[in-house]
Amino acid sequence: MNRVRIWLVMGVAVALGVSLVSDAQAQRRGMRGSFLGLLSVDAVQKELKLSDEHLGKVKEMTEKFRTEAREKFGALGEIEDRQARYAKMRELSEGFDENARKALHEMLPREQMMRLYQIRLQVRGNLFAVNNGWMANRMKLTDEQKKKAADLETATREKTSAVFSGIRELPEQERRQKFTEAREKIAKVRAAADEQAVGILNAEQKEMLEKAKGEKFEMP
């Protein structure tokens, strides 16, 4: 698989929340960044009690976004600087997710959309929550807390990027083995970051965060 193809596959996967691997833990991680990714999970569909009509519309939306993602992410492999590639991929992915959010607001009833937000908070974790603008305002984070949250996110992103550094240049069989090891390392990095993120909050803010997550949802 050439470099352009690799970045195309990665970009579409990240934008739509599609897991590139089959194990359950990695699937949960793969769904973290995307509304459409969450809605592709049977358990989430059942939790939201989506009708056949809604499921059909979500499928149509996913196909539409997948086509657009292929076009936009296809050029990422031509960007030589690795950090610039990741930055652009993140920018595009966040753009797709925001467009999906707006479309879903028009499609789903308020209660279903609110529950989807709650599940998303639980799945994406505390590091996401403290860096999310809406949640930060709701919890009334101070400027100092916001800076700590942003610094933690940057440090975590650098650690995860370092784990994958050089893996994609390896032969396919060796790359698969290294990816398994990398996933385990990244799971530990993210778990530590989520724990540190909670430490940024005061008692009242922690209570607000847990309330915002709603009833506990178990991702299969």
Keywords:
220 residues, mainly alpha, 77% helix, globular, disordered N terminus
Q: Could you characterize the architecture of this molecule?
A:
With 220 residues, the chain is an all-alpha fold. The chain has 2 domains: 1-21 and 33-109, no CATH class; 125-220. The protein contains 12 helices and no strands. It has helices spanning 3-16, 24-30, 35-39, 42-48, 52-73, 82-107, 110-124, 126-131, 133-138, 143-164, 172-199, 203-213. Helix 1 packs antiparallel against helix 5 (52-73), helix 5 packs antiparallel against helix 6 (82-107) and helix 10 (143-164) runs antiparallel to helix 11 (172-199). It is globular, with a radius of gyration of 18 Å. The protein starts with a helix and ends in a 7-residue tail after the last helix.
Strand segment count:
0
Query: What portion of residues is helical?
Result: over 70%
**What order do the SSEs take from the amino end to the carboxyl end, as H and E?**
HHHHHHHHHHHH
Shape type? globular
Poorly predicted regions: 1-12, 18-31
What do the pLDDT scores average to? 83
Strand content: under 5%
Question: Layout of SSEs?
Answer:
Elements: H1 3-16, H2 24-30, H3 35-39, H4 42-48, H5 52-73, H6 82-107, H7 110-124, H8 126-131, H9 133-138, H10 143-164, H11 172-199, H12 203-213
Sum this structure up briefly:
This protein is mainly α and 220 residues long. The protein folds into two domains: 1-21 and 33-109, no CATH class; 125-220. The chain is built from twelve helices and no strands.
